[in-house]
Amino acid sequence: MRTNQEASARLDASTIGHGPALIGTKALRLTLRLLADRAQVIIGQPLNGTSNAGAGDVGKIGNAVKNRIFNHLPPAMILMVLLFWAFGPAFLLNNPWTLVGTSSLITITILLLEKAHERHAGWRMDRREFFTDLFYNVMSATAIVWLTEKLAQDPLKAAKASLGLTTEWAMHMPWLLQVALVIFLIEFGQYWMHRLMHNWAPFWLTHAPHHHITQLNAGKGAVGNPIELFLISLSVVALFDLQDTAIFAALNVLNVISTFAHANVRSDPPRWYAFFFTTIQNHSLHHSVDFESTRCNYGNSLILLDRIFGTYREGESALVGQDDRRRLSIWEQTIFPFQPMIDMIKGRRKNGSIGSALLAGGQPERDEPVGGAAAA
Fold this sequence. Notes:
This protein is mainly α. 64% of the residues lie in helices and 0% in strands.
């Protein structure tokens, strides 16, 4: 403020007794100086002749703006999803394929954001990762959805009808409350199923393949054993009478949150967002190479549940995976829950063949102890 006053005083003093041309020149010069001083105050960088301001400072300012934009993309995309399902054209809202299109568009958009502003170079997408993720995303949108409908949703609806249950009150709730209810019902079930998978060996065998991924990307949320993908998709939403658009909006909101939580995008959302919703920071910690560190932050999209039930943990991890970060193939992920049984059967067969050889007077090979590795 003092700088501006001094410059104004110099302008008044220097123009007394001089012609219009000189007045204009000095006025322009001092006006530019005032603007430079004000810019210095705004950005906190010196702009005088002795400064080193240049391309480096401009780059820092550009990166700061870019980071701020990307930090607000998750809540902005949630808002766009809600606006679409609340006010979109009827011919789209009533089309059953619209949900497939919006879900795919969300994943593709965030995948492209990885190219624009990646978080870790080690998580950069390659051809193998892309086609693996594509396989699982297609399977989740087709086979898993069909199984969930036939084995879970339809039986729930039938049981509801046979028992004469009605929840028409839910249909009359404000639309946003219906969306919030669906989000809570899905996330509450997923939280406890996810927590069970990390604390009981039979369920961990179905979930472990998801933790064998060695990088996080937009499509990684759908990567896993088919049994786990089915179990984690179970919910009681079918018991409630709700507007279809509210259900679809909730599914897309969850899609935005969970996709960003798995994506290689440098995006650190605002604190209010991170208090309620899962982010890449706490979810990458959940995918840590240390198994004990995976037993936290179970909320797939609603990290608030971890805060409530005491399983929330601060932190972030750039290294993800299990078993020395060994990446599993699609086939290995598929048979992973049955691998202990397969190993046991192989061990018994080996023991049986060795026993037969001993009875026949033969000797086991020296590099294979009697009983095999399975007996150790």
